[in-house]
């Protein structure tokens, strides 16, 4: 089976009551091999920003799935159980198990999530079933979210080694989840506030972002915003924003035809010289040097 046929077959698993309504999405497909030396193989991954009316209902799905909620509220139904899903939660299901999930109607911003579908060989020693057909929280949600995101990033990269890398990453993810103190009890409200603030920053990496504006939009003050980021992201909001700006700058420099000046303005800098100094401070090379290397 090639990537196109795999994509079509997975898309056809949703039944007539489903509504795949999205603001944004990114996905990749890797048909599984028959190599038993690879106990867990990622076959599909996607990042979805779902609209409020998003809903998936299936009678069957051919692979195991784990999903991580980045932002928004929703629900997950499986085996006659209903779970409320919120930021930092993970839910999953096994092949052949009917299930349904979607956004909460009262949450107008929709649901932002990452999905990883994978094939597990019967001879594997991983008790993956412990993680499936349920929804749960884990102790270190940011660490787990970053691992989900890295699988998506590498899967989309589609390089010579991407498939091997994501198959190793899914093993690490499963093992970390299995050894985590996962539970059904909700996270404290502080994590939900942090997730909301982080989502705002993630949506617009720019030097013009105001800490006060972000804090006000989330109903907190700037000092509390700093404490939230130190607790859940292990850095200050400024360091996190700087990291996002550098990552976006590198992407634009290497993948777009925009001039350095245009990139500087897009990221909120008043001139390209300020941008170049900022970039060199963090990357130790200038934007133009990065473009030559790339």
UniProtKB/TrEMBL annotation:
Keywords: DNA-binding, Transcription, Transcription regulation
HTH araC/xylS-type domain span: 195-293
SUPFAM superfamilies documented for this protein: Homeodomain-like (SSF46689), Regulatory protein AraC (SSF51215)
MF terms (GO), sorted A to Z: DNA-binding transcription factor activity; sequence-specific DNA binding
Matches recorded under Pfam families: AraC_binding (PF02311), HTH_18 (PF12833)
Name of the molecule in the record: AraC family transcriptional regulator
InterPro entries: AraC-bd, Homeodomain-like_sf, HTH-like, HTH_AraC, Tscrpt_reg_AraC-type_HTH
Keyword Transcription regulation in annotation: yes
Keyword DNA-binding in record: yes
């Amino acid at each position: 089976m090639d990537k196109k046929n795999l994509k079509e077959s997975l898309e056809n698993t949703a039944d007539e009551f489903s509504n795949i309504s999205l603001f944004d999405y990114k996905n990749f497909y890797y048909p599984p091999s028959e190599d038993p030396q690879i106990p867990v193989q990622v076959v599909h991954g996607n990042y979805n920003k779902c609209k409020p009316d998003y809903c998936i209902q299936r009678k069957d799905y051919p692979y195991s799935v784990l999903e991580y909620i980045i932002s928004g509220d929703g629900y997950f139904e499986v085996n006659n159980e209903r779970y409320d899903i919120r930021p930092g939660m993970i839910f999953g299901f096994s092949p052949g198990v009917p299930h349904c999930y979607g956004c909460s109607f009262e949450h107008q911003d929709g649901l932002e999530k990452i999905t990883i579908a994978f094939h597990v060989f019967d001879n594997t020693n991983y008790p993956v079933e412990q993680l499936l057909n349920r929804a749960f929280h884990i102790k270190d949600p940011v660490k787990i979210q970053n691992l989900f995101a890295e699988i998506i990033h590498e899967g989309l990269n589609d390089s010579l080694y991407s498939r091997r890398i994501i198959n190793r990453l899914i093993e690490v993810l499963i093992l970390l989840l299995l050894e985590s103190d996962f539970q059904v009890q909700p996270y404290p409200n502080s994590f939900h506030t942090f997730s909301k603030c982080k989502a705002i920053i993630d949506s617009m990496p720019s030097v013009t972002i105001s800490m006060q504006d972000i804090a006000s939009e989330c109903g907190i003050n700037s000092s509390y915003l700093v404490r939230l980021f130190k607790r859940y992201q292990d850095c200050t909001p400024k360091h996190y924003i700087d990291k996002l700006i550098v990552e976006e700058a590198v992407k634009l420099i290497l993948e777009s035809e925009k001039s350095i000046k245009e990139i500087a303005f897009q990221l909120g800098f008043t001139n390209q010289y300020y941008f170049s100094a900022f970039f060199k401070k963090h990357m130790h090379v200038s934007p133009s040097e990065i473009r030559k290397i790339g």
